[in-house]
Task: inverse folding
């Protein structure tokens, strides 16, 4: 891995995009490495929560590497977006382990799209977020037009995309784009604190909950039906047996993750 770093501790993995001289911009190689990293961590039974952040103090991800696609054709552009969705953005959204974005600075274009594909977001108080693609004569192509509207509402999404403007961390918090804002010095430890709370719960139930919540945003899928199915499936798990037994015995559950 040349462009990302992975650290594991106490059932939490931290993925750091490590291209500080490029403000952690996403190029093809970085997207591929992120895919491979997430795939490996998803298969690692010792990892229960993943945090993704950027190296340095300036940027989470300041956008895509424009030099890679400046001369693309219509066909190449469509293929670029489709591959990005499959390898990273949709992949992260549908991962069965929680992924938290710790936005530590600029999250622009593909960077904001990556943060939005995570299950939720924390941010440092110097963070700035936006989708500036229309200044390049193109639109967000990694899910930005869809996920931003889902998170902040149609009107705000339209304004952010059309003006190509950035919002600061406080505005992002008021919009519901991020869940928490803290100082940059506190950001990673604060996010680890949330992750540690998640770690204590049933990883099997959490994966079922992720699938059920995501189902609400898929055309042709009835999210309530997915919830009913997944709720029932939980009753056949060892985690359910442990959770209910621990409750009745008035002790803390030790979930096997099965």
Result:
């Amino acid at each position: 891995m040349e462009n990302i770093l992975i650290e594991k501790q106490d059932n939490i993995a931290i993925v750091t995009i490590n291209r500080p001289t490029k403000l952690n911009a996403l190029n093809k190689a970085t997207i591929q490495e992120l895919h491979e990293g997430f795939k490996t961590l998803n298969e690692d039974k010792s990892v229960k929560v993943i945090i993704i952040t950027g190296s340095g103090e300036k940027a989470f991800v300041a956008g895509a590497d424009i030099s890679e696609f400046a001369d693309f054709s219509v066909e190449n552009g469509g293929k670029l977006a489709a591959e990005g969705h499959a390898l990273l953005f949709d992949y992260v959204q549908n991962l069965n382990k929680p992924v938290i974005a710790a936005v530590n600075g600029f999250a622009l274009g593909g960077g904001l799209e990556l943060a939005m594909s995570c299950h939720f977001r924390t941010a440092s108080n110097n963070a700035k977020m936006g989708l500036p693609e229309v200044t390049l004569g193109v639109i967000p192509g990694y899910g930005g037009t869809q996920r931003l509207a889902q998170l902040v509402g149609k009107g705000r999404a339209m304004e952010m995309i059309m003006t190509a403007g950035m919002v600061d961390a406080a505005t992002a918090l008021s919009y519901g784009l991020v869940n928490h804002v803290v100082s940059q010095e506190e950001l990673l430890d604060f996010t680890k604190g949330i992750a540690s709370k998640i770690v204590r719960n049933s990883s099997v139930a959490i994966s079922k909950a992720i699938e059920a919540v995501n189902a609400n945003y898929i055309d042709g899928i009835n999210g309530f039906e997915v919830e009913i199915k997944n709720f029932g499936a939980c009753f056949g798990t060892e985690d359910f047996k442990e959770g209910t037994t621990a409750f009745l015995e008035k002790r803390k559950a030790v979930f096997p993750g099965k």
In short: The first helix runs from residue 28 to 43. The CA atoms of residues 116 and 147 lie 6 Å apart.
